Structure formats: structure tokens, C-alpha cells
Automatic annotation (TrEMBL):
Residues 1-24 form the signal peptide. GO terms for biological process: choline transport; glycine betaine transport. It holds the Pfam family OpuAC. Keywords: Cell membrane, Membrane, Signal, Transport. The keyword Nucleotide-binding does not apply. The keyword Signal applies. This is Glycine/betaine ABC transporter substrate-binding protein. It comes from Pseudaminobacter soli. GO terms for molecular function: amine transmembrane transporter activity; carnitine transmembrane transporter activity. It comes from the Bacteria.
Length: 287
């Protein structure tokens, strides 16, 4: 579907990057970066499909971690990223590059971070993070919170939440895939667990989960997810920049599409979304 899809590390991203003027040449692909989060994968591949099919431009997808993603856009090694969680989750990363990137728009509002438990866990036992301090609750949860990758903003906030609430738990650093494997296994056996989570995410369409309260606001409030571009991208490629700036998805629509991607594939889910929402796509294209 796309010109290139590759996994790169920090060194590969930051060393020997192309100059901005070279990126602007017609034969150069639009380089979209993304980290391995389900929502980011869907919206990035959706944008790539529209840029290729509707604008007739090549696209290169570059998967990396969150920190080098921000660095890549700020240095001009990437044209854009579609997963800037603000104002809290990616605050540290964004602050470092704010003057070196342009914000094209907000891809969706009302994004949320938090900790979830299965709905079969009684709210009388766990309704908030504070309840994790109960001896019987800690025993059933094994004193563990299922986490994701170490570079994620959610990981940083969860580590702070553990301190703020004084819960004697271990944050199990893993990955989104690792967290989901644990959730799936424990749901099948109706075992208790608590896991870091965020919305939008397809798992809310597959599993019956609920967020637990965070009365201290340690994990932040509702956020918006922005599209960032390298300086000069709007001038070098106005058509692609305008398309990205117009893209905005309601979270319920996005979660349905993400669940479709899990049931089929991201490419098929992207095709289905485009077919099911022709008016929205026309609006994005300025038609």
C-alpha cells in the first residue's frame, strides 16, 4: 500500500537526515512518523492512503519511539506526526521542540489517559486509585499495574501517580502489545488486574473495561491530539499540509475503525472508513 514501512531507532533517525530543501522535491515521499499506538497507526495510515490515492504523492511511513519522533520532526527528518498528546502526556517532548515545529491541527479531542479494571471487578472493591491500597485488593492484583513502553507519557504519569497515591505497586513496564496480551489472558479467566490505558483504543470495543477514578488528577485531564509538521512543510507541500490540517475524527468513529483494524487489518479498516464516510473525506480534501 505504501512506498516504505520501516522500523528505525534514534541513531538512524537523527544521523544523516535529509535537508528540508531535498524533502520538498516532487520525487521525494511525504515522510509520516508514528509510534506503535493503535490510534496513531490508524490515523497515520488513513492520511497516507489519502495522500497517495487522492493527491498522487508517495508516502513513506516511519515507525519509531515517541522521543525520536518529536526529534525527527523538529530536525526535518520527518515531515509530520499525528500523535502529539497535549497538554499533559507529551508535555516534556513538546516543550523541547515547540519552537521548531508547526501545529497543523487537532486530529481528535477528548482523548483520555487512566487506569482500567474489568467490569466484573465490583466498584465496591475498586472505584478509585485510592482503593488499590486495600490489603485484599492488592493481594488479588498481585501488587502489579500492567504498563506499556518506557518512553510513553502515560508511563511517566503512572509512575508519578504511584508516588502521589502512595500505592505500593510495581508498574510492569512492557509495551502496548504486552499489556494487551495480559488483559486478554486475564479477561478470559476473569482474573483481577489493573492496567494503564487510554482512549481512543479498540480494546474498549472488545472488552468490558472501566476507568477507575483519579481524584488527585495525577494522570491528567481530557486531552487533544495534534498534528505536528516540520518547519517549511506547509510551504513545500501545501496540498498535503492542508489535507492533514483538515483531518478530524470523532473518537467513537475512530474506536470503531480501530476495532475493525484488529478484526481484519489496518489497510482494510482504512478502506472501509473511507468508503463509509465519503462526505467527511471530501471535506478533508477541500472538495
Amino acid at each position: 500500500m505504501f512506498t516504505t514501512l520501516r522500523r528505525i531507532g534514534l541513531a538512524a533517525l537523527l544521523v544523516g537526515g535529509m535537508a528540508t530543501t531535498a524533502l520538498a522535491q516532487d520525487n521525494k515521499p511525504v515522510k509520516l512518523g508514528w509510534a506503535a499506538w493503535s490510534d496513531a497507526e490508524f490515523v497515520t495510515k488513513l492520511a497516507a492512503k489519502l495522500i497517495e490515492d487522492k493527491l498522487g504523492q508517495k508516502v513513506e511511513l516511519v515507525q519509531t519511539d515517541v522521543a525520536p519522533l518529536y526529534q525527527g520532526v523538529s530536525r526535518g527528518d520527518l515531515d509530520a506526526m499525528m500523535m502529539a498528546w497535549l497538554p499533559e502526556t507529551h508535555a516534556d517532548y513538546h516543550k523541547r521542540v515547540e519552537s521548531k515545529v508547526d501545529t497543523l491541527g487537532t486530529i481528535y479531542d477528548g482523548a483520555k489517559l487512566g487506569w482500567v479494571v474489568p467490569q466484573y471487578v465490583p466498584e465496591s472493591e475498586i472505584s478509585s486509585i485510592e482503593d488499590l491500597n486495600k490489603d485484599n485488593v492488592k493481594e488479588k492484583l498481585g501488587g502489579t499495574i500492567q504498563g506499556i513502553d518506557p518512553g510513553a507519557g502515560l508511563t511517566r504519569l503512572s509512575q508519578q501517580a504511584i508516588k502521589d497515591y502512595g500505592v505500593d505497586y510495581k508498574l510492569q513496564i512492557s509495551s502496548e502489545a504486552g499489556m494487551l496480551t495480559t488483559v486478554d489472558r486475564d479477561m478470559r479467566s476473569e482474573k483481577w488486574f489493573v492496567a494503564t490505558a487510554w482512549s481512543p483504543h479498540w480494546m474498549f470495543g472488545k472488552y468490558k473495561l472501566r476507568y477507575i477514578d483519579d481524584p488527585k488528577g495525577a494522570l491528567g485531564k481530557a486531552e487533544h491530539v495534534d498534528i505536528l509538521a516540520r518547519k517549511g512543510f506547509k510551504q513545500d507541500n501545501p496540498k498535503a499540509a492542508e489535507l492533514l490540517s483538515r483531518m478530524k475524527l470523532p473518537i467513537p468513529e475512530l474506536e470503531v475503525a480501530m476495532f475493525d483494524a484488529q478484526e481484519t487489518s489496518y489497510d482494510k479498516a482504512v478502506d472501509k472508513y473511507i468508503a463509509d464516510h465519503p462526505d467527511r473525506v471530501k471535506e478533508w480534501l477541500g472538495e
